[in-house]
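FORM 7B: Structural annotation worksheet

SECTION A. Query
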Amino acid sequence: MKKVCLCRSIWYYQSRRDDNEVIDKLTELAEAKTYRGFDWLYNRIRKQGHNWNRKRVLRVYRLLGMQLKRKTKKRLLKRIKEPLEVPNAPREVWSADFMSDGLITGGSFRVFNLMDDFNREALCMKGNFTMPGLRIV
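SECTION B. Predicted structure
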């Protein structure tokens, strides 16, 4: 026979840990907000006045299998690249764009640009501090 070299108190040790209170609190909070993760649950428990250790709560959280699945990015279908259509004459196709900049005083202003796509001529350039939609139309 081989010796184990352990103290009897370690060999016969049985944990007296009672996590029922932590389990009840975690399930109660998780039922109310099913989409929340561990950090939110733990912070809510601390705000309610329970001084349970983070490692203890995390251990119980994992034992209950409450981990949320990580969200994966949805892949977009590859689009077919088509060349841009070139206009045949001036004033057929226009492009509208905004530019903005800041002043030294902290204010900002915007400039509305209307461009002709055939010859890239600026048809309209209006600048102001405010640009409501009615003024642009």
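SECTION C. Observations
The first strand starts at residue 94 and ends at 102. DSSP finds five helices and three strands in the chain.

SECTION D. Sign-off
Analyst initials: ____
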